[in-house]
Amino acid sequence: MLRVDRKLVFLDIEATSLDVHSARPWEIATIERRIDGTEQRTWIMVSDVDLTDADPRALAVGRFEDRRVRDGRARWLSEEMAALWLSRRLTPGCTVVGSNVAGYDLPILAAMLGRWGHSPAWHHHPIDLVTWTQAREAGSPFATIGLTEGSYELSRIAGAQPPAAAVAHTAMGDAMWARAWWDALTETAVVR
Question: Nearest Cα to 12, choosing from 179, 166, 172, 126?
């Protein structure tokens, strides 16, 4: 059994590039799940995102031009304020959960924090749902899975439907997908 003894943060970002060294986050979503199971969602749009090294293809995937609308649903913060918010909400020891968080989202967010004098405080072992699903399926005598399976296929194998097209590649849509994927993977294995 898995004992969840710290806050989980389901996280996703949309960024200006796939290159983690130059990418800047322009959309950040978190779903904080406390140990007691209560949750808090936060959706941030970075108002002053630096597009100097932006990759037009990365912006197109996240529908950057279409979605940067102030409609009252997201908090619009400067990058400096977004970094301050993250430094306070991703509290020491929380475990970040998502799809490719260790290889993409967290390095980009760590760089943003560093630009504004903050350091990451999240636990140094984030949970990558792709890796967890691959490991679970590799241990099953009935599964045949390759390392080339994509995240959508792996989440289906785990029992979680990928996000609908309207919310795919949106930070909150993908954070909600990460939460559903985690819940599908752990529904019979978690004790509180």
Answer: 172
